[in-house]
Amino acid sequence: xxxxxxxxxxxxxxxxxxxxxxxxxxxxxxxxxxxxxxxxxxxxxxxxxxxxxxxxxxxxxxxxxxxxxxxxxxxxxxxxxxxxxxxxxxxxxxxxxxxxxxxxxxxxxxxxxxxxx
Length: 117
Ligand SMILES: [Zn+2]
Fold this sequence. Notes:
Blueprint: H1 18-26, E1 28-33, E2 38-43, E3 54-55, H2 62-79, H3 86-90, E4 96-97, H4 105-110, E5 115-116
Parallel strand pairs: 4-5
Antiparallel strand pairs: 1-2, 2-3
The protein binds zinc ion.
Zinc ion binds at residues 33, 35-36, 38, 40, 55, 57-58, 60.
């Protein structure tokens, strides 16, 4: 094994994928937002899709929706029932939620929970 294949080198640069190139040209996508539980449009505002693709309804970013997806998947596995959006997580009475955010779409949705800090 050559020396340079033995270790991971940082920073790691990935090539821009076809979806990213198309998304930055199209600038508007339709889809389901699991932060606000809506069929909606996502606006591309810049080249970095992670912090853009803003939901026109709740203003969540792509990164926030990815976090919401992981939350839904993880809590679904814990309780043995499929949760598809943050509103369903917020409706759970026996769950204590701690969020370090004090503003934004995720905070706004989860703040309706019974035990939210
Ligand atoms: Zn939304």
